[in-house]
Amino acid sequence: MHFHGTSRINEKGHLEIGGCDTTDLVRRWGTPLYVMDENLIRRRMRQFMEAFEATDLSFQVAYASKAFSTLAMCRLVEEEGLFLDVVSEGELYTALAADFPAERIYFHGNNKTPSEVARGLDAGIRLFVADNFTELHLLEALARERGLRVPILLRTTPGVEAHTHDYIQTGQEDSKFGFDLGSGQVQEAVRQCMESDILHLEGFHCHIGSQIFEVEGFRLAVAKMAELVRHCREQFGFHTEILNLGGGFGIRYSEGDEPLEPVRYVEAIAQAISQAFSEEERPEIWLEPGRSIVGEAGTTLYEVGTIKEIPGVRKYVAVDGGMNDNLRPALYQATYEAILANKADCEPEETVSIAGKLCETGDMLIWDAYLPAVESGDVLAVGCTGAYNYSMANNYNRMPRPAVVFVADGRSELVVMRETLDDLISQDVIPERLKRKTIPASS
């Protein structure tokens, strides 16, 4: 497993993260356990901010909270000076409960409900990223009821799609998100905003993909968006104040992944902006990294349980978690690397497949992991689980969701409590007709 941040092998031969021996973490907090390297999270946020500060661009960096949203994470984001991108009422509620400044929150999503829009308006968030015409009408109606003028960006599908190294340009991108650029939907949305006394259009948003390891796609997106900006200025007299280029910056999950440092992405974007816009028309540039901030900072610790060998076929090693705490291998065929945390200094000697304990054949975390001799009771550490693992955690098979701890400078702090069995049934209700009836005693 590739080590990130403060991860290292300590003098006991154990995996250590944030100055904490992972075997001690397991004894204290149990397994499965999400461990988040706080210093690495902060460093990633600062890398994006410092990269922009070295340019002549006006900018904002927002953390995409869908990657990992908790009260404690919101506090880290606030302390580091970033904005917060939310995509649901739950994420907004979490941010506000953490006392995150509403004026640094903006709201994404392709199907915002009236309740979500109302909560955002009432909280006074910075703006909404409007996704479709239905939403424009909803925003206008609810803001008018409140006597408000609502600031928005229009999400666009610019016809640039990134698949790691492969960039595809199409006239009309097929996506559930955003106003299509090729068909003229964006221009019609701009016209409606310009005619409204409620909708205050400030600019545009686009997102070209995820796990992007090169910069060409962002250059293409800037060029496409610059054309839109010029067209809207000429046709409607609209001056674009903000251009949000989304996220999608890749991380290293396994061998073969070669992500760039944040500064490389920012430098390429800054160069493309300078080429595409004159200094007078240059908008403020926003980015919204999520995975690239928390992904590599997360490690999941499991206890090894049963071991099953099929001679000449495969050796299965089962752990006490699985697709309930890491859905991505089953959902996306995502790949991960692992080590035995309690044998981190031992030489690998066998190839095994890491199985979860859920009742699904597809509940496999890693198909071929090269590890030291595995025994029941070992601690397996799976790296790069900071993004979309806790976020997608579920209760399939009535499995309680794991705890989350932040580690830094030799201390570990609980930020999400482990669910209990009582938590699992806390929302269940037995109808009166199904309640056990008391049988009268015989006289």
Number of helices: 12
Number of strands: 24
Given the C-alpha coordinates, what overall shape results?
globular
Estimate the helix proportion, in percent: 25-40%
CATH superfamily of the largest domain: Alanine racemase
CATH architect. name of the largest domain: Alpha-Beta Barrel
Rg, Å, rounded: 24 Å
Biggest sheet record: 9 strands, mixed
Mean pLDDT: 94
Tally of individual domains: 2
CATH class of the largest domain: Alpha Beta
**Parts with pLDDT < 50 across at least 5 consecutive residues:** 168-172
Keywords: Amino-acid biosynthesis, Decarboxylase, Lyase, Lysine biosynthesis, Pyridoxal phosphate
InterPro entries: Ala_racemase/Decarboxylase_C (IPR009006), DAP_deCOOHase_LysA (IPR002986), De-COase2_C (IPR022643), De-COase2_N (IPR022644), Orn/DAP/Arg_de-COase (IPR000183), PLP-binding_barrel (IPR029066)
Family: Belongs to the Orn/Lys/Arg decarboxylase class-II family. LysA subfamily.
Protein name: Diaminopimelate decarboxylase
Explain briefly what this protein structure is.
With 443 residues, the protein is an alpha/beta fold. It is 28% helix and 26% strand.
Give a structural overview:
Pyridoxal 5'-phosphate binds at residues 248, 288-291, 388. The protein is α/β, with parallel strands linked by helices and 443 residues long. The chain has twelve helices and 24 strands. Helix 2 (38-53) runs parallel beside helix 9, helix 5 crosses helix 6 (133-145) and helix 8 (216-236) packs parallel to helix 9 (262-276). It folds into two domains: 8-37 and 296-420, Lyase, Ornithine Decarboxylase, Chain A, domain 1; 38-294, Alanine racemase (TIM Barrel), CATH 3.20.20.10. A hairpin with a 2-residue loop joins strand 23 (403-408) and strand 24. The strands form four sheets. Strands 4, 17, 18, 19, 20, 21, 22, 23 and 24 form a nine-stranded mixed beta sheet that branches. An eight-stranded parallel barrel has the order 5-6-7-8-9-13-15-16, surrounded by six helices. It has helices at residues 22-29, 38-53, 71-79, 89-97, 114-123, 133-145, 185-195, 216-236, 262-276, 291-294, 328-332, 421-424; strands spanning 8-9, 15-17, 20-21, 33-37, 59-64, 83-86, 105-107, 127-130, 150-157, 160-163, 166-169, 179-180, 199-206, 209-210, 242-244, 284-287, 298-310, 314-319, 338-340, 350-355, 364-371, 379-383, 403-408, 411-416.
